[in-house]
Design a protein that fits this description.
Strand content: 5-15%
Shape: rod-shaped
Strand order of the largest sheet: 1-2
Number of domains: 1
Order of helices and strands: EEEEH
Number of strands: 4
Distance between the termini: 80 Å
Radius of gyration: 23 Å
Helix content: 25-40%
Structural class: alpha+beta
Largest sheet: 2 strands, antiparallel
């Protein structure tokens, strides 16, 4: 019995995928939506393209938070020389 998913004999049962942003129909091998120019991933079980992970944004966020933490430590908790 086949689940309501995307696989049948190891192949996808979908012939197109929908962009997650603009809902435009795209071929299965498309990497960029031709309508809104967003990057799209593989098709999921509902026929929508998965949103790819933006690693650069995650890394930049972590580095920014670390910099903020370091600045707060330097501003408030750094040992000041005793006179």
């Amino acid at each position: 019995m086949q689940a309501s998913g995307t696989e049948r004999d190891g192949r996808s049962i979908h012939t197109t995928k929908k962009c997650y942003e603009c809902l435009g129909r795209l071929p299965l091998n498309a990497e960029i939506c031709e309508f809104c120019k967003k990057k799209v991933g593989d098709v999921n079980k509902d026929g929508f393209a998965e949103k790819p992970i933006d690693w650069k944004a995650y890394i930049l966020s972590v580095l920014s938070l670390a910099g903020l933490g370091l600045y707060i430590w330097w501003l408030f908790f750094k040992d000041s020389p005793s006179p």
